[in-house]
């Protein structure tokens, strides 16, 4: 017991105010720290310890032999907050933080999982564009080179930002008005389906998708064939003049694949269930 008290005293003398441990912390140590206004938590995973170390600085210690103030991390404020039915420890105001925590909340587990996947994809896109990461830069510029090669190889590009989809939608709507049979409904539905791309772009950017799509319809109806979604400032933008380009080959391939998939699904006229 005396040996344990000596180890606890080493921690106190180091100046630590928050103690995190992978192992369980006994009642004696908990009371010892509480009497000295020190917060302690046991059974903390190594992944969480590394995250805290990256946020607050310092290093994870495996023994108390070299424990000193120099190896401790620091933060401006440490507090415990209640979030829903769970309690979380917050390390905030970290001067040299290299990590951050994002808490996802939702009404159902599947919504949270979908949000997690979307957030992960967004973070990976940002990581690929990080100017301070040479490896990521190589992949990023390789992607740009491939895109440029496709544009040069086929000598055809179209405006991105949903502009080409809106222009195709306008064209199909105009053509469908000249059709007198039931094909008119099919063409109108296909034209409406193409508007999903600019609508989704607007939603992903946090914009009012309905207003954006209605505005794009008006612009394309009045000859602004390259009007697309402006995700930076909101509203619309001329995709070609803003250098938002996409190879024609990519668009043709995507439209052909989507149309084939739709035709396959529509071709199913009956589903037979087999009971085991």
From TrEMBL:
Gene3D superfamilies: GroEL (3.50.7.10), GroEL-like equatorial domain (1.10.560.10), TCP-1-like chaperonin intermediate domain (3.30.260.10). One of its GO terms (molecular function) is ATP binding. InterPro entries: Chaperone_TCP-1, Cpn60/GroEL/TCP-1, GroEL-like_apical_dom_sf, GROEL-like_equatorial_sf, TCP-1-like_intermed_sf. Molecular chaperone; assists the folding of proteins upon ATP hydrolysis. Known to play a role, in vitro, in the folding of actin and tubulin. Belongs to the TCP-1 chaperonin family. Heterooligomeric complex of about 850 to 900 kDa that forms two stacked rings, 12 to 16 nm in diameter. This is Uncharacterized protein. The lineage of its organism: Eukaryota, Sar, Rhizaria, Retaria, Foraminifera.
